[in-house]
Specification:
Elements lengths: L1 E8 L9 H15 L2 E9 L13 H7 L6 E4 L2 H4 L3 H13 L3 E4 L9 H34 L12 E6 L2 E6 L3 H13 L4 H10 L12 H9 L8 E2 L2 E2 L17 H14 L17 E3 L5 E8 L2 E8 L22 E2 H16 L3 E8 L5 H19 L7 H20 L6 E10 H6 L4 H10 L4 E4 L5 E3 L7 E4 L4 E4 L2 H14 L1
Parallel strand pairs: 1-2, 1-3, 3-4, 9-15
Antiparallel strand pairs: 5-6, 7-8, 10-11, 11-12, 13-14, 15-18, 16-17
GO molecular function: DNA binding; DNA strand exchange activity
Keywords: Coiled coil, DNA recombination, DNA-binding
Pfam families: Recombinase, Resolvase, Zn_ribbon_recom
Length: about 500
Amino acid sequence: MRVLGVVRLSRETDESTSPERQRETVTKWADLHGHTIVGWAEDLDVSGAVSPWERPQLGPWLRERSGEFDALVAWKVDRISRRLLHFASLLDWATENKKTVASATEPIDTSDRFGRLIAQVLAMFAEFERDAIQERVLDGRDKLREAGRWGGGHPPFGYQPVRVDGGWRLEPHPDQAPIVREMVSRVIAGASVLSVCRSLNDRGLLTRNKAEWTASSAFRVLRSRTTLGQAEHKGEVLKDADGLPRRIAEPIVLYDDWRRVQKVLDDRGKAEKVRTHGAALLLGVGFCECGQRLYRQSGVSSGKLYSYYVCSGRKRGKRTEDSPENPGCANKPIAAPILDDAAVGSLLLMTGDLEFQEKRFVPGESHADELGQVEQALKEAREEWDLGLYGGDRQSYLERLTRLSERKAKLEAMPQTEDRWEMVHTGETIREMWDGLASVEERRAFLLSLNDFRVTLHAQPVRTRSLFPGTPSGEATGGRVSVDIPHDLQQQVLERAARTA
């Protein structure tokens, strides 16, 4: 009989017999019964909960090479599967395909119903054992987290497990932690998440899995509290015995910087999360005179790419705020290069030699988050006691309340200042900043950072005018574009004009 040897080593425990020992036992069984081993399906670091058909080695044998063997033989039934449902399905498949399933160390014979029943009972016990192992592993990890130790698994990006005093702790990774700090500092400085990803990828600074950075993977790092040294599980911050965030490592990002990043990402909204390469330069700052946003529409004709800005109100059924009965805006599209050049040219003509002042978020001294966590922990502790759910005795309960109450009083006594924005001198002119931006996404982010910068596409030619809204207009010139610049830049232009008058 042709035998396919099945070997599996679980990633959940080190108690399993080694692959070498499993192969040796199966080989002796085949020799004893006069069978020939025609191949091996060796799945290492694979959980017993994985279906046999989905395993990297065994799966292809079952799906594509079933004609090459007559029996599947493993050291024990649990090497084939630790899920009763999966094992029962495999037995049904074996019956239909005239195959035998055997164990080299257990007396099972799947050629009759009684033998199949015995095999299923063994598989059931294997599943119970798997669940028990999983519970022990999870319970052990919880206890390690409570002690400030690392319970195993993939460490969060920026950290590495280090053996300390017979256990494991997380410490900042010498290569990854600087990447996290760079991501944080660049986003705070105004760079888009996509531009940060491209910069890291271009320099070969990849993710933990050696994959290129994407917006979603970068957002996970920037949003995660693990960079503060706090323990997370499935996106939730784990708490200590007092109900406060559990610290498991040294922070690699300062809390104030982490708050800055959250503020920047919140202000940018969801648009950047889904932005891809080829974003329109004026998306978000370009508007039709009807009030609707402009979007870019591209197409190919005679092998040439054409791009236009189109009013979003042109779609049938789209009503403008001023004309709810209007079936759609009639404003004609404009070639994207023309509108881009007009907008940027106007901006640089008026403000290009002014120093660019970066708007930077300065977090105040606020303890509201931690105070809220302490108050919630106090509330939960009292509720647990009132409902009889508190796990300790009265003394431990009172000690917990005392610690939390003292922490609450200390936080309430600390000074509180409001968050604010401040303008920071950069030493570069607006033109120098613009010329130094390499991509459309970065330049678009720069325009979005200029509060109240607005480009308007008109249906009819507009009169020449200054870039300041509300000032006298000149004669009509045939142009359909007007540009408004931010108030602070208007003031700088006026001050410069007054000095040179």
